[in-house]
Amino acid sequence: MRNLPSELIEDILRRLPVKSLKRFRSVAKAWCSLIDSDRFIKMHLRHSLTSLSNRHLITGGAGAHAVKPPFDCKSGDMISYSCNGIFLLMSDPPVLWNPFSREYRVLPDCPVEYAATAAECYCNKAGYEFGYDSRNDDYKVIRVLDFRHKITHAPMANETKIYSLKSNSWRRIEPLPYPLLFLRLNWRVHVNGVLHTLVPDPDNVYGASIMCFSFETERRYQMLLPRRIRIKGFDVSLDVTGGCLSVVCNNLDMVVVWVMKEYGVNDSWVKLVSVTPPVFEGNDYVKPLVYSKEGGRVLLLGKTLFWYDLRNQSVDYVFIEGLPFVFYAEACVESLVSLGGEIKNWGCEKEKRKDKTTKKRDDFLSKGFKLVL
Amino acid sequence: MAAETGTPTTLTLKSNDDELFSVAESAAILSVTIRNMVEDGCAGGVIPLDNVDGKTLASVITYMNGISAIPADEEKKKSYRDKFLSDKDFETLADMVLAANYLNMSCLMDAVSAKIAQVMEKKSVGWVRRKFGIENDYTPEEEAAVKEEHKWTFEGVETDDDN
Known about the structure:
The structure holds 2 protein chains of 2 kinds.
Chain A: H1 6-13, H2 18-23, H3 29-36, H4 38-51, E1 55-61, E2 79-83, E3 86-89, E4 95-98, E5 103-106, E6 121-123, E7 127-133, E8 138-149, E9 155-164, E10 169-173, H5 184-187, E11 189-191, E12 194-200, E13 208-214, E14 220-223, E15 235-241, E16 244-251, E17 254-260, E18 269-275, E19 287-291, E20 297-301, E21 305-309, E22 315-318, E23 327-333, E24 358-360, E25 370-372
Antiparallel strand pairs in A: 1-23, 1-25, 2-3, 3-4, 4-5, 5-24, 6-8, 7-8, 8-9, 9-10, 11-12, 12-13, 13-14, 15-16, 16-17, 17-18, 19-20, 20-21, 21-22
Chain B: H1 2-5, E1 10-14, E2 20-24, H2 25-28, H3 32-39, E3 46-48, H4 54-68, H5 74-86, H6 90-103, H7 106-120, H8 125-132, H9 140-149
Helix pairs in contact in B: 4-6, 5-7, 6-7
């Protein structure tokens, strides 16, 4: 038996996965308060992010959730990218979900305000995105409703609302200028509390630039593509690689990945990967996922998963049993981030208050699909 | 000094149970605490380390010598650290983290804390209480309630072997 000072215990605990930490809340009241504290939750997340530990790939097959959420959802409902271990399930109503702590929160109703819905127009399925506002330490969800003319299908109106987890309410903001729905895969790029998408830009030499939406300021701005990029003849998409904004230029003959090493600094774009067959099998879709722990390799998803060695420029295929033939993968870090349930205060522990919409259930998470990196 | 004579400077460290150890200065200054003493010129005689016992200090010195013999190659250093810690039990690891903290050796502290976390990961609540000397201040009802909140985290816990 050793009595370690509390700062050394904290230093040990911040390295543990969420499951162990949730179990060790039962050790003593002081451990419970520590593990539930906002300070510790942030410290734990920061450690996981900087040391590249507690990372997972969440994978899903076509139309199916390999990791079954603990609440009712239709198989067609999409799961978002992850932000600090939280996912957004785009069901009706949408749900914020931390699969690692098994906490989730069903978002409150958000009425449609646009009035001219009746006769001449229709509304597409709502588009949802979410992200983290570090300035206000808040998770936010955007809902975009895109109203179109019944006959001409011309855009008629766009109603954009934003939900804040802290206030647990929706409010209207200035409409996003591009219908999220039709570019939705492209909006799936969340870096530094900012959403990114590629937009046509006739004034730009490449004919395209990066549109950004900041969750902190709730404003839009534009960013330039890398200076020496070649996009003619390529499918161009945005992505996140090891926490950095990246541009993937892909055709069947070549994949080039650029990353913005320092967010917002245009001179920091570097060409990270440039690979041609037969080193890898060409595919119409390539997505960079994560760096290896020692940093020398990047995990890419094409037809299958493969590690790309940055030094040797060689490829190592990864085979994972049980994955469907066609699948999707998303890298994420596990976290204790709470979705706003009441944190137990042991001074008044008799109170069994729990927010109605914040629940925990224990009947899911198929292990085989939650891969530890 | 060292360079002129060709023999490396040696320091003498004294544990709190009065054991004396000789160690090359170049290895010992991995400890910021010792390096500061050397820089302040307090390292002429014996350096007393009041918070470290002989057994732990011997182990720390083995580590100092081992790691400083490895050239600047982070992967090799990492595999040395992994091997060095692989056979240590919890008590030894706890003593080492205290020593590393006192000696201000961040690389050792980081490695030992990570190792302790790895050992703890699948352990039971009872094991953690015993090893860390923590008193259970929950009433049985409270404890049952806390456990109930995260019942799923008690699946796959190792049976206690007290190692």
